[in-house]
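discrete fold record:
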Amino acid sequence: MPESAGVARSLVRTALAAWHQEDLIDDALSVITELVSNAVDHARLPSIRVIVARPADGWIRLGVVDRSRAVPEMRTDSNGDQIRGRGLVLVEALSDRWGTDLHPWGKTVWAEMQYEPAE
């Protein structure tokens, strides 16, 4: 599912441009890439769902829904030259808050970014 990240980035770019939030696009693309990558690595089905929403005025929510109930853990250790496993550190750095919502059938991992609403 390597193409999943590209499709997700396109969706995020289109939504943020439509919402006039171009300043968030670069960071949002990095965040959604990491969330999709985690879901692709750990999902139990060949499909995931990407969410791009405005849950409240001044907030953008990016999320990925998959069938795994395994809660992602942020790794901060420097396990030699291993790069994998530290994507949530990037999500933490680029978003204002992030988390995991468990469902009976899987989970949603989300990140939210705050912006200044238009007057």
Notes: The CA atoms of residues 34 and 112 lie 14 Å apart. The chain has a mean pLDDT of 88.
